[in-house]
TrEMBL record:
Residues 127-236 form the GFO/IDH/MocA-like oxidoreductase domain. It comes from the Bacteria. Residues 5-118 form the Gfo/Idh/MocA-like oxidoreductase N-terminal domain. This is Gfo/Idh/MocA family oxidoreductase. SUPFAM superfamilies: Glyceraldehyde-3-phosphate dehydrogenase-like, C-terminal domain (SSF55347), NAD(P)-binding Rossmann-fold domains (SSF51735). The keyword Metal-binding does not apply. It holds the Pfam family GFO_IDH_MocA_C3. Keywords: NAD.
């Protein structure tokens, strides 16, 4: 079977990685790159740089990756859908729910694969975590807490931290727990002189009953990417920056220290850090996109799922503005 002809729109900080990995994925051939801003990272090679989405479509592509700023996602995606091109857009799906829904509808109507690059689902630590939750290694899930903090990326100018970063945590939480959000409440801060929030704290509850908490900001001098899932048998800690997964089991040894044993909660048990294969998340994601286009089993994040993550992020921002919790 001939390789899928791939086009890439945008070769900025994320697009440059797509360019590298698309060249390495079996069954895919990167044949065209477009970016109105040129090639700042020098990744085009012999392909050259096309000026816009229309030129990219004109190159005769089967699939496309859209890695331009969020406000341009809708225009590019709708043109690709009209041209019959299967498409993966970077997260968030769009700048607004209305735009995202138009994208969902366009790809569903055309019978095309429309996907969103929620790459954290493909992180080896989170994939191993989900496998272990499905195997009932934790029992009932009580709480999922995430921390995604780091310095401000000057390249992000069109959305705030809720849509750009918290959308990761929203999507991975619902995916890991296999449960949608029921309720959210949030608070935001604006400390860097921009119109969009640069800090958000979200709390809420999933349909399964688990409590969720997300601390997300662009104001921390250190970078942190941590997901903690606490449940009936202990707690999993996934560090998605390193791909590590650790399990803290509830203790089974009776405590004899009176000041500690008087507490009727759990006690500390064994701590296990798991060893497992750690493949690059972007490669796994693009392989899933390829498989979806070929009609094979896959774990691609459909646009409808990306739209749900955007809905929760927008609800969180609305909650922060109104001071009220929002039911989803």
């Amino acid at each position: 079977m001939a390789a899928l002809r791939a086009g890439l729109l945008g070769v900025g900080m994320m697009g440059r990685h797509h360019a590298r990995v698309l060249r390495e994925v079996d069954g895919v051939e990167l044949v065209a790159i477009a970016d109105p801003g040129g090639d700042p990272h020098g990744v085009a090679g012999g392909l050259g740089i096309l000026p816009d989405i229309d030129a990219l479509i004109g190159a005769g592509i089967d699939i496309a990756v859209v890695a331009v700023p969020t406000r341009f996602h809708e225009e590019a995606a709708l043109k690709l859908a009209a041209a019959g091109v299967h498409t993966l857009v970077e997260k968030p799906i769009a700048h607004s729910l209305d735009a995202g829904q138009r994208m969902v509808d366009a790809f569903e109507t055309a019978g095309l694969v429309g996907a969103v690059g929620h790459i954290e689902r493909f992180n080896p630590a989170l994939q191993e975590l989900r496998r272990r939750l499905e195997a009932d290694d934790l029992g009932e899930v009580y709480q999922i807490a995430t921390r995604r903090q780091g310095p401000f990326p000057s390249r992000i100018a069109d959305v705030g931290v809720a849509k750009d970063l918290a959308s990761h945590d929203i999507d991975l939480t619902a995916w890991v727990a296999q449960s949608d959000y029921r309720l959210v409440f949030a608070q935001t801060a604006f400390q860097s002189g921009r119109e969009h929030e640069d800090m958000i704290a979200i709390t809420g509850r999933l349909e399964c009953g688990a409590i969720v908490n997300h601390l997300v900001n662009w104001l921390s001098p250190m970078k942190e990417r941590v997901t903690v899932v606490t449940g009936e048998k202990g707690a999993f800690v996934a560090d998605t920056a390193t791909g590590d997964l650790t399990f803290f089991a509830n203790g089974t040894i009776p405590l004899e220290w009176e000041s500690v044993s008087s507490f009727r909660g759990v006690s500390e048990g064994d701590v296990t850090r798991y060893a497992f294969a750690k493949r690059e998340p972007l490669r796994v994601e693009l392989e899933a996109f390829r498989d979806a286009v070929l009609g094979k089993d896959n774990d691609v994040v459909a646009m409808a799922q990306g739209q749900r993550a955007l809905a929760v992020a927008e609800a969180a921002v609305d909650s922060a503005r109104t001071g009220e919790s929002i039911a989803l």
